[in-house]
Amino acid sequence: MKVHPQAAVLLASLDLALLACGSQKSTTPGAMGSGGSEPSGGTGALVASGGNVSSMAGGQSSGGAAGEISAAGAPNGACFKPHVGGRQDVTLTVGQFQRNFLVYVPSSYQGSVRVPLVFNLHGTGGDPAGQEDDTQMEAAADQHGFVVVALAGYQSRWNVSLALTEPDDIALTEQAISWAKSNLCIDSQRLYATGFSGGARLSSRLACALPGTFAAIAPIAGVRNDPPCATVPTPLMTVHGTADMTNFYLGCPEADTGCSRNGEWVESVEAALGDWVTLNGCSATPVITPSGAADLLTYQNCTADAEVLMYRVPGGAHDWNMLPNTTDLVWKFFSRHSLPARP
Predict the structure, then answer these.
(1) What's the half-sphere exposure (Cβ side, CA atoms, 13 Å) at 273?
(2) Which residue from 56, 32, 61 is spatially nearest to 44, judged by alpha carbons?
(3) What global pTM score does this model have?
(4) Cα-Cα-Cα-Cα dihedral sign, residues 44, 47, 50, 53
């Protein structure tokens, strides 16, 4: 889907205008405290085994999503895969490890029209249920008609560095995509990844490690591109607070092992964003739209319309909900982008 640069700025500016006017979104408490640690989230028992799925009582809401699903459906082959709506647990074996994830199927899922898929990744120390509590992504899925996959990090952490001795989160993602495509009518041109903090770092890594898989990514409070990866241009949106005391906006000296967490967080947010700007072939200088809630930095003239946006929140802490409608902004950004059809 082509997005004219001026149209992208206008759309994002309209979102900022809604913020400035006090637009509200219902969220669940559980945001980050001032201590800078990541949320532990809900308990979210993961009970399925052997690759099977057991249904749970997922919160479903009504809404006119059926028309949106029809509009989103893409012609990647006929599909007939009925499936129960709501939240479900899945367990898969990835290498030598048992890995888990939650799947949420929207209440309007038809089983015959292909729908988008959004990966929603928790922060370090969190879990899929806690990420849902913070983001309310399942409510957005019911409203807009997309499937949510929330991976569980091994011992609540992600192997962003791709250490060979640790569980392979890239392989987990690939297997989760395969599971979703086998069991649901998924639009392969509309796969997306978002996440918070450690989950943001992993969503950044996924775009590098699986080029051409995701139509867009939205790492929140944790965008990375170090070392700079060689992948295809990928649209990217991020939100980051200037007072983030976990993933510092200005980065950390590598020698300061406490600040950088032994080299895990060195590059500044703007430097990491600059790597994506270069990769996506955008103009180096952003258009900045001030607002009371955030400053929108828009990088224009990108290759293949792979726009790069950042909502910079003055005084914003380490929190998904530093803006009142972060989840809405993420989905609006995703909905503008799809991969080109493959032969």
Answers:
(1) 29
(2) 56
(3) 0.81
(4) negative
Interacting residues of 257 by C-beta distance below 8 A, sequence separation 6+: 263
Q: What is the DSSP letter of 212?
A: T
* Closest-CA residue to 318 (of 211, 252, 222): 222
Other C-beta atoms lying within 10 Å of the C-beta of residue 200: 29
Distance CA 6, CA 3 (A): 8
CB atoms within 10 A of CB 314: 13
Coil vs helix vs strand at 237: strand
Give the span between the Cα atoms of 248 and 259, in whole angstroms: 8
8 A C-beta contact, residue 276 and residue 308: yes
- What is the block-wise mean pLDDT of the chain (343 residues), using blocks of 10 residues? 53 57 40 37 35 36 35 64 97 97 97 97 98 98 98 97 95 98 98 98 96 97 86 95 96 92 91 95 96 92 95 97 96 97 76
Distance, in Å, from the CA atom of 125 to the CA atom of 127, rounded to the nearest integer, reads 7
Strand ranges for 21-75 from DSSP E: 53-55
Nearest to 92 by CA among 32, 180, 187: 180
Catalogue the long-range contacts made by 24-27 (C-beta closer than 8 Å, 24 or more residues apart): 24/324, 24/325, 25/136, 25/324, 25/325, 25/327, 25/328, 26/136, 26/139, 27/134, 27/136, 27/321, 27/324
